[in-house]
Amino acid sequence: MLAFNRTDLERLFPSTTWQRAESLCEQSAVVEINVERDGRSITGRVRGERRTPYLTRVNIVNGRGGRIRLSSTCTCLVYSECEHAAATLRAGELPPDRAAALVEECARIAAEAGAELDRQVRSEAPGQLALPS
Ligand SMILES: [Zn+2]
């Protein structure tokens, strides 16, 4: 069972980052948000000081024990775990619970895609584990 909740989400970024993200959301700075088809990342375009919006990507990684871990990259100077990534997760003024649900949904899609790949590999070589080539 995948697990990711509001507390995890709020723990991801320092509270000052969340505060800046809140004000970005209030200014409708998040101009675009996309969930990648494989469910492993959420990308967002966020207006900042520069003319072109920052492109930020939140990566979803399945951790141990069904936990989900997140990491983020961005084209801004902070580069990772910045307010643009936080704003992307809160885009459209998603309440934290719904943002967490979105992350969990993405991870579920990714896990299902991974399980499907697993089944294909196993059916090609029954009883054997695929060795990395
Ligand atoms: Zn950024």
Characterization of this structure:
The protein has one domain (6-120). The protein contains 4 helices and 4 strands. Helix 1 packs across helix 4 and helix 2 packs across helix 3 (83-89). The chain is globular, with a radius of gyration of 17 Å. 41% of the residues lie in helices and 21% in strands. It has helices at residues 6-12, 15-26, 83-89, 96-124, and strands at 30-35, 41-46, 54-62, 68-74. It is an alpha+beta fold and 133 residues long. It has a 4-stranded antiparallel β-sheet with strand order 1-2-3-4. A hairpin with a 5-residue loop joins strand 3 (54-62) and strand 4. The structure holds zinc ion. The site of zinc ion has 7 residues, from strand 3.
Portion of residues in beta strands equals: 15-25%
Radius of gyration (CA) equals 17 Å
Major β-sheet profile: 4 strands, antiparallel
Put simply, the count of helices is 4
Order of helices and strands: HHEEEEHH
Which structural category do the helix and sheet elements fall into?
alpha+beta
Number of folding domains? Answer: 1
Mean pLDDT comes to 78
For the largest sheet, list the strands in their spatial order: 1-2-3-4
Total strand count, please? 4
List the bound ligands: zinc ion
Outline, from the CA principal axes? Answer: globular
Query: What is the rounded distance between the termini?
Result: 30 Å
Low-pLDDT sequence parts: none
Helix content: 40-55%
